[in-house]
Amino acid sequence: MGRDQMIDMLLAIVEDKTGYPRDMVGLDQNLESDLGIDSIKRIEVVGAMLQKLPEGLRASLTESRSKLNTQPTLNGMLDILSSAKAGSVVASPFDVAETGSKVIAASSDSHPPRHVMVPAHESIDADALKQLQPGLFVITEDLAGQAKALAGALREQGRESVLVGRAVLGSESALIEWAAALRQQAQPLAGVIHLAALGGELLAPQGSVAEWRQQLLTHEKSLFLLLKELASRLTEGSHVMAVSALGGHFNRAGEHTPAGLSLQSGAVGMLKSFHEERPELRVKAVDLDPGQSAAAQIQTVMSELEVVGGRQEVGYPAGQRTVFRTEAVVVPTDPANLEKLKGIVVLATGGARGITAEVLRELALPGNTLVLTGRGAWPEAEPAEQAALTTEGALRAHFIALVRAGKLSMKPAEVQKKVQAVLAAREMHGNKADFEQRGAKVEYHPVDVGSDDGMKALLADLYTRHGAVHGVLHGAGVIEDKLLVDKASDSWDRVVGTKVMGLLLLQKYLKPESLRFLSVFSSVAGRYGNSGQSDYATANELMNRLCCQLQRRWEYKVNVNALCWGPWGPTMFGAGMVTAETEAKFAEKGVYLVTAEMGRRLLKDELMRSGVDNIEIICGAGPWEAREADLGRIRRQNPPAPREVLGSLLGPAEMMTLPMGGQVVTFNVDANHVYLQEHCIDKTPVLPAAAALELLAQAGRTLWPGWNVVEVRDFRLMKGVELKEATRKFDIVINPPPYGSAEGFEVNATLQSEQQGGKSVVHYKAVLRLEQRMPEGFTRAPRARFDKKLPVAQAYDEYLFHGPRFQVMKTLKGLSADAAAATVAPSKPAEWMGHVPAEQDRWVFDPALIDAGPQLAIVWDRLFRDETCLPTRFGRVSRYVEQLPAQMTMEIEIVPLEDSSLVGANVYYTNTAGEVVMMIEDMQCISSNALNRLGGTARLAAKSSV
User: Fold this and answer.
1) Distances (CA, A) of 172 to 116, 497, 807
2) Mind giving me the DSSP string for 839-857?
3) What is the pLDDT of residues 318-362, one digit of tens each?
4) To the nearest whole percent, how much of the chain has pLDDT over 90?
5) Helix/strand/coil (H, E, C) string of 367-387?
């Protein structure tokens, strides 16, 4: 592909992703400042670009993908494309939070999905693998003297360390300068251990923003700055640990009510997010109990440093190792509390738009006053000409036309901001009108929630005019997504400060004696991490921790909760934040969309609940606990035998995530695979190509639940599998998708095993395509006449070597020089494997039916060429229905090939209506007269001559 072709392709992608005509896009324009393409949108552009590249060129961009994602101009991307070297695909970050997958019913039950954090004791077993990365450790100094003690403990293990002093931690410029000096040293970096919060002074609840910001810098932002500045020195296996002292439960439990507040443990969200961006690192957040001895605390830190794997969030209340599991719990509601939601004044920061406005409809009742805040003035009404443009695309085209006519002077990035501003204004007007129509009085106040003067004046005014503020929804927030290494310092301040300073100022000026509820809008991005959102995750986790502190300070008299929202879909007047790419990313992880109705119900239930035990509420359906547990596996010196049955052919298998995000499924093939005894070549069991294809497909289905493996492309035999031993271990290695889209995604998969000497041999490789829905099929008229007929029993007796489990051809309709057809019936996994768990008793492609295609090719080959052929390649295997019919017609269409040693064919499986339900395209089989020995006639002749 030449550079001109690449330019045309790239400009077309940018036009599609942004709506800007290509004549407004310059190859040397800055993608962010000139075109409004931020780091996450850039990943979407790169993903779409890779999708359009030829496969060989796409595979060659492994080492360069991260550079492509960070290029400031399109010409920079083109330079990398032009100089690509051979390689393979790598992982891309997980996209923004609070956007989502398609609306799917998460549960048949009447209760919306709600989860809470539950502590559970989990010890480190004796056989856990323990390793310390070699090199220099960076330790941030604390006020309890633990940094020096930890340095001593590391020295006993042969590891050196360097301390970052308190004065340096408290000055951003000094910290950046310190890190720059460390980068110049040649000594490898083993990791960063952040102890700065230990022994920290409590903040006065009535303190100043300056005091709060200083602790935020020392306790939280300093770690962000260190990781940003030292990221290039962190290599595979490097440690990143943040240690807090909130009692061991991260403030979730405990009776002690401290005299002040503490900003710490936001690193839980940041580190989980950073791990999404750098999965090869060992990250962990540890919460200590200050009541434990200093020596016990150091021993705890060392123990968590050494263990390989384990939960990323671990506490030690009373010195007992504790993890926090996500469990579904239905909220206990009290109908009597419904009266408490009437005749009230509710303050909603950020309440004019988005999810805050959507859930506020539950409180827009006659007699209620809703006080909304936002960053800017209330928007004026639109001009009639502009108001008639109802879609984002129409607005964009309108402003571009004004630019071209010389009536406006804007860069593409400014055009997009203008479009978004118009849509935001419409949403605000729509919400206010809806609240008033429901009977509520509505006020709007432009205020910066991080401004002490602004919030003081607002609350004073509300108490003067209304006498009380009964409820608060703190939904104000800023999202400026970037990978941690790309995140600017001032952007971090805006994202974290809006949420955290806003909450601190609310508690400073609210009167708890009249306050009934305080609901903080947090996110699963903080709870579970999300690449590109390390700052947003920090902000949300800090709010979660502050809410726990406030509930105790207010003596449980106020219903305080932090609602950790999952991805939201469209609201009544807003389009939501769903893009095709983020939709696919969430769906890959099994995360369901929070609908507007579900979100309103969740808030109402929390406000009507009868208990105050849980503060953090995970709102929305997703595999929250499964994900945490999978990431939190402790590696062992002698790994236990795999237990979970992952598929009918896979059987009991074990899954592992590779450092760069790839997945490995390890399983054994042994005597349980009874079908192998019916697929022997020269008396040796051989794994059928169709079974290998099914194994790859089952692995894909297991790794991406909710997606359908609809296609296996470029399936190739690399080295056949002869099973001479009783048991043999295999690995299926699947690389993560380099891009995602609502239309589907593709992954590379290999089936391999370890040979003597430790070398891995690839037996089969393929590309799996996954989509959320089955693709639409097509009809095909069956062939009416054939030249030759043959009883199917004769074919199996004389030409084929396949046992009863493979004999799914029921009749042979006939054969001609260019085609052959048979009636076939599907098989069942239990017939192949013996006992199969009921939930796994299903195929993806049905290996018996797939194998029937090559079987019919063998029969054709014997009759027309007197040779036998064995499959080596399937160009594409596609399926169009979830469940195959009980009877089908299978027809092979012979495709002439230049190589006379090959038989080529397409195979069609059709139902009684002539609809193609499954298909094999470009099947290639190696053909030879010498292989005739495998057929029944040859075997019988050899046996009779003995």
Assistant:
1) 36, 16, 73
2) GG---SS-HHHHHHHHHHH
3) 999 999 999 988 888 888 889 999 999 999 999 999 999 999 999
4) 59
5) CCEEEEEECCCCCCCCCHHHH
pTM attached to this predicted model: 0.65
C-alpha distance from residue 535 to each of 32, 116, 266, 693 (Å): 19, 23, 9, 43
Among 185, 214, 309, which residue's Cα sits nearest to residue 634? 309
Q: Is the torsion defined by CA of 73, 75, 77, 83 positive or negative?
A: negative
Half-sphere exposure of 239 (CA within 13 A, CB side): 34
For residue 253, give the nearest of 158, 317, 175, 313 by alpha carbon.
317
Return the ∠ at Cα 746 (arms to 776 and 688), rounded to 5°: 85
- The pLDDT tens digits of the residues spanning 504-540 come to 999 999 999 999 999 999 999 899 998 899 999 999 9
Q: Which residues, listed in sequence order, are joined to residue 309 by a DSSP beta bridge?
A: 634
Whose structure tokens read 């004696």? 513
Q: Are 936 and 793 in contact (CB under 8 A)?
A: no
**β-bridge pairing 517-523 and 471-474:** parallel
pLDDT for res 89: 33
Q: Are 236 and 187 in contact (CB under 8 A)?
A: no
Contact by Cβ (8 Å): 481, 533: yes
CB distance 182 to 232 below 8 Å: no
pLDDT at 98: 36
Contact between 96 and 481 (Cβ < 8 Å):
yes
Contact partners, residue 122, CB within 8 Å, separation at least 6? 311, 321, 322, 323
Q: Which long-range contacts (CB under 8 A, 24 or more apart) does 49-54 make?
A: 49/9, 49/10, 49/13, 49/77, 50/738, 50/739, 51/739, 51/741, 52/9, 52/13, 53/1, 53/81, 54/1
Q: Residue 726: count other Cβ atoms within 10 Å of its Cβ.
A: 9
Contact (Cβ atoms closer than 8 angstroms) between residue 211 and residue 203? yes
Vertex 160 angle, CA 484 and 235, to 5° = 35
For residues 915-920, give the mean pLDDT.
96
DSSP 343: S
Q: How many Å apart are CA 533 and CA 96, to the nearest integer?
A: 7
pLDDT at position 722 is: 85
Q: State phi, psi for 862 to the nearest 5 degrees.
A: -65, -40
Assess contact for 675 and 808: CB atoms under 8 A.
no
- Give the distance, in angstroms, between the CA of residue 918 and the centroid of all CA atoms in the same chain: 30
Between 12 and 302, the more confident residue is 302
**Dist CA 550 CA 908 (whole Å):** 66
Token pair 């129409």 is found at 394
**310: closest CA among 636, 664, 665?**
636
pLDDT at residue 619 tops 80: yes
| CA nearest to 593, candidates 96, 99, 111 | 99
CB atoms within 10 A of CB 881: 15
Closest C-alpha to 558, from 470, 617, 465? 470
Instruction: List % helix, strand, coil for the chain (3-state, nearest 5).
Output: 40, 25, 40
Q: Which residue has the tokens 């009535």?
A: 206
Crossing angle for the helix pair 39-52 and 580-588, to the nearest 10 degrees: 90
Beta strands 868-879 and 916-928 are antiparallel
Pair of tokens at residue 465:
């005019």
Which range has highest mean pLDDT (24-28, 313-317, 660-664, 725-729)? Answer: 313-317
Three-state secondary structure readout of 774-832: CCCCCECCCCCCCCECCCHHHHHHHHCCCCHHHCCEEEEEEEECCEEEEEECCCCHHHH
Give the strand order in the sheet containing 653-657: 653-657, 663-669, 728-734, 745-754, 760-771, 708-717, 868-879, 916-928, 902-910, 888-895, 819-824, 809-816
